[in-house]
Each structure stands twice: as C-alpha cells, then as structure tokens.
Design brief:
Elements (H helix, E strand, L loop, with lengths): L3 E3 L12 H10 L3 H15 L6 H10 L2 E5 L10 H7 L4 E5 L4 E5 L2 E4 L10 E5 L1 H6 L1
Parallel strand pairs: 1-5
Antiparallel strand pairs: 2-6, 3-4, 3-6, 4-5
Length: about 130
C-alpha cells in the first residue's frame, strides 16, 4: 500500500515550515487559517511560540489525544514509514522532534515525502479520530 499522500492545505500552496498547521487541518477538519489562528491563540495563552511542541501537543491533548513515546530500541532504523506499516488503522500524529505528520489508516500526509524521518513520539485518540477512521 502506498503510505505517502501529498497533502498541502496551505492556501497559497507554500511549503513554509507549517507542518504543525498542515497536521492540524487533517486532524481537526478545519481550514489552514483557522488552525493557524487556534495555534497562535494557544501559544499566547501558554506564553510560548505557536510552533513549540508543547503548544500543539497541548492543543491536541485538549481534543482528547494522548501522547506516547516510541521506544529507542533501534534509534536510527525505525521510520515514519515503519510506523505507518505498524499502524494500519486509526488516526495518529507522529513527531520527530523537529517535524510532525498526520497518519490516517497507515498513510502519512505531508507536503514532502518524510517517510525516512525518525519518529520519537506519537499521539493517538480523541473524538475526532473516532469519526474519521
């Protein structure tokens, strides 16, 4: 099964380092602009930059997602592609520490093929994920 799905909801089709907003659009079903504004407001509330991991993770946790750490048993050989193969059902958010993608039913959605990136954590859950699976 093809696991990479090219996905860029940026209204001007820019590839601007907005991976968090791209992920949020898929997870929430909201527009790029709405996700940008919600992320900025959450950052302001927390007195953190909107792109900080702690901000978007908190936003997802508010939606019912739970964070899990990926075991470091093979730190350089387990990839986003491998995560997709291991999780063929469900909605996940997979983070590398510097990049994040949404994974839906074993496919990762991104503006570029990030399948070789090494994930360190993921989030799963939330009422929206039950509706979209």
């Amino acid at each position: 099964m093809k696991t990479f799905v090219k996905y860029n909801p940026n209204p001007l089709q820019k590839n601007t380092g907005d991976c968090v907003i791209r992920m949020l659009t898929l997870v929430t079903g909201e527009s790029w602009g709405t996700c940008y504004a919600n992320l900025a407001l959450k950052g302001l509330e927390m007195a953190e930059m909107p792109s900080a991991n702690v901000v978007w993770i908190s936003l997802l946790q508010d939606l019912g997602f739970r964070k899990h750490i990926i075991p470091n048993s093979c730190p350089n050989c387990y990839t986003i592609q491998d995560f997709c193969n291991d999780h063929p059902k469900g909605l996940y958010v997979v983070g590398t520490g510097t990049h994040v993608v949404a994974v839906l039913n074993g496919q990762y959605y991104d503006s570029w093929d990030s399948g070789d990136e090494i994930p360190v954590f993921y989030l799963k859950g939330g009422k929206l994920s039950e509706l979209r699976v």
